[in-house]
Amino acid sequence: MKKTVTSPIMLMLLMSMLTLAFGVQAASANLPVHNKNTGLDYGTIQEAIDAPETLNGHTILVDAGTYSGYEYVNVYKRVSLVGENRKTTVIDGMGIWVTAANVTITNFTIRNRGHAPNAIDSMGENTTITNNILTNNDVSLMIHGSNSMITDNVIANGSWGVYLQGKSTDVTRNIGMSNNLVANNTNGIMLEGVHNCRLRNNTLNENLFSISVGATGTVGEWMLSQFIHDVDTSNTVNGKPIYYWVNQHNKQVPEDAGWVVIVNSTDITMKNLEITRNYEGINLQFTKNSIIEDVRVSNCRVGIMVGLYSCDNMIIQSKIENNDQGLYLDWQTTRNSIHHNSFINNTKQVYTSRSYPNIWDDGYPSGGNYWSGYTDADLYSGPSQNQPGSDNIWDHPYVIDSNNQDHYPFVNKWSAADVNHDGVVDVLDAAAISAHWHPGPPIGSLGFDSNFDINGDGSIDVLDAALVSAYWTGPPKGPSAP
Ligand SMILES: [Ca+2]
Ligand SMILES: [Ca+2]
Ligand SMILES: [Ca+2]
Questions:
Q1: Is residue 281 part of a domain?
Q2: What is the pLDDT of residue 481?
Q3: What pLDDT, on the 0 to 100 scale, is given for residue 70?
Q4: 318, CA 20 to 30 Å: which among 137, 294, 389, 412?
């Protein structure tokens, strides 16, 4: 049997022969960009925009293929740019610079864009960016215009993923982001100086610094409203939900948090959290009387941000490790009490934007914090560190600035069960607990020393001894029975 095979090549040949025969020009053979409204075709996206026939409200369709060769496409008319297929309609090395309002960009891959203007850079209001793949760009998406929508995009492998940045001349507000995958960027999503943004179901995976919120402007312009955003727990950082709380009181952040932002709130407890790889790990803004306790914050730009006007908070028993800046104290932050933490290998352990006074120790012998890289002598003990005998507290204060000093910096990393602070949990701690045994009456009674009340229940008893056993790091407690 003979089979009739019609290959695509044969079809094309046939079509060109027909075209020649009938003198009809194949409309789209060499001109891959089409104005859907006028029916006219163009060689480049820019030509289609520039054509006098292209008017506001028109849709420009772009065939699959790779588009490059220009610095950027200048979208200064209110048009929709629609790619044929987001995987095969590729803008390579060019930026899209949007200055008109009501522009839509959909179904493109935009990649390998080095410098400003960015891969997509929009000054226009009501910009819609949907169903694109933005990859290997310096900045994939820079949005300055209000009422913009960013949905269903993949934004990956760049230096900066999404940058929502307020204009210096106007208030930028009401930007929505939903169903985006932001992955493997150095910096994932930055909200900077924008107002009232709404984030839903965005997935941040394996970015070096996942997400940030900050204010811009001079001191007088640092408004609370730059932190009022609607970000719910459908947004995740490496599989863990984001808790972005505004105007909350007397609540505890769930322990599965991937990023924590607390705005204009009081009496919030953040306990037993493990936060890593955000721009700010825990970010307090305009927040008071809250407590950060037993958390570990690592590998962030800023481990814990004590932001604008955040006062009277406590940060205790936490490990702040391998961040660029361990703790950042911003404008008008005072009376925050920070002790029994370990600051380990942060490039800068503490940054104070101004020298507002804060409290860095819990008196003697309860002590202050552990600061990696800080060494001093430990020959003395006592509240003034002038009595002979070492006490595992350095003899001189750790000085952050003139208003901020830890008077009793620990020689060793802080651990609740290491009650003598010698860096191991062993028989000496068990003995010290016995020596300060004080079951029953509550804190404040005569002879009670809270240093030995490991579980903080107001009693020094068998439960505290059990914690020494549980956190034992010394030599084995005895011959192990077969
Ligand atoms: Ca000492
Ligand atoms: Ca010890
Ligand atoms: Ca106790």
A1: no
A2: 42
A3: 85
A4: 389
Contact 62, 89 (CB under 8 A): yes
Ligand 3 centroid to Cα of residue 397, in Å, is 29
How far is ligand 3, taken at its centre, from the CA of residue 461, in Å? 6
The domain boundary, picked from 190, 207, 224, lies at 207
For residue 368, report the distance from its CA to the centre of ligand 2, in Å.
16
pTM of the model: 0.89
pLDDT digits (tens, 9 = 90+) for 384-397: 999 999 999 999 99
DSSP calls for 61-93: EE-SEEE-SSSEEEE-SS-EEEES-TTTEEEES
For residue 407, give the ligand nearest its CA: 1
Peptide bond into 52 cis (omega under 30): no
Nearest partner of 96 among 53, 67, 65, judged by Cα: 67
List of the chain residues with pLDDT < 50: 1-6, 11, 13-15, 17-28, 481-482
pLDDT recorded at residue 21: 41
What is the domain-level CATH number for residue 452? 1.10.1330.10
- Give domain status of residue 113, yes or no: yes
Give the amino acid at 58. Answer: H
